[in-house]
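Contributing new records

If you add data, match the layout below exactly. Sequence lines come first and carry their own label; structure lines follow with theirs. Keep one chain per record. Anything else will be rejected by the validation script.
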Amino acid sequence: MSKLELSSILEEFSITELKFQEWKKYLLLELSKEQQTKLIKSLEKSGSIIKAGFIELEEKVNDLNELKPKIIAYLKKTLQTLPIQKTRKIKFSINIQTSTITIRKQLNSIIKKSIYQTSSDLLFESKIRSPKKETSELSPYQFFKENFHKRGIEITCLVIKSTIFIGHLKWVTNPLKDIKQDEERPVRLFTHGTSIKLARTLVNLSKIQEGDVLFDPFCGTGTILLEGLKQNLQAIGIDRDPKSVRASKANLNHFSMKFPSKERMKDKWSIYLLDSQNLNEVIDIKIGGLVTEPYLGPFIKELPTKEKAKDTMTMLEKLYTKVLQKSVEYLKTGHRVILIIPEYRYSQDYSIYPDYQKIAKNCKLEFQTKSTLFNVKLPVQIGRKHNIINRKLVIYTK
């Protein structure tokens, strides 16, 4: 999912070809300084990307003895750019990723000695997190909870084949913001809500332009609409469930109250208790994109029979087709539909899901088979493979 979202973000910079290296959970990209700056700024609105940083050193493994002075020079340059000049205190975390224990120990020792030497030279007070461990990678929660974003630095060292890459984090997703947003929502419905991070990712993938209209025909508690508003979009949502409509209105009203009256945030969204077949009653303009996590079928705790799973998928396929056929009448040509569909497991090794290609054909939509960059095949699975109910992300274009 993160590679798909990153591809979408980079496309905004007109990047359609890119040199990159994928290793474990890391992507190493070759970007210009201008592109790096744009990317870090754009990541603030991402939902699935966890961390990002810059590679500052690239050395061969057989040059370990010559590594310390280079790391010291890099640290001195970096520390002088951080907003810690008044306190003269800084915390370090070291993230070393290599399959060789001996090299990990050597690098850990070299980096720690370099940190202490640099701190002594620049008169900084340094504290290394978990100094007895060979690596101390921080989770995003730890990064912000321990104030690394204000007075800390996480050094990342990747050993890929015979090359060592060393750099530090420039951006980390802040889970504390999402936790606060979730806790402050007036209404939360377990079976009717999309996660904040997923909603943010879906909106990014829609590529709706600022000021254009986002439409969600299964708006639930309004999470997708809210994430659209945060990206300066207009938002229209409908739902046939009165409880969901009340929840959406309460959540978006609460969000709107945070803005000055002159911004007229309440004028940027509308939510209706409505069936999609009656869209003409509330929409008289073309929309910039359709983004939705629809009804995914009944909540189940045990594996269904093959027949039961098949019947549910057939029912959902008809529902999605019916809603999309009417909705895409209002979608601008060349614009996107971002749809989540369910995948039911009916045995340990077999599953079934709505025929997304048939839906595309019946709704006169084009199904996207892969991302522009990184060759991510679509649809993309969301969630763990062995869940009873999984989800797939589908992208269509009108």
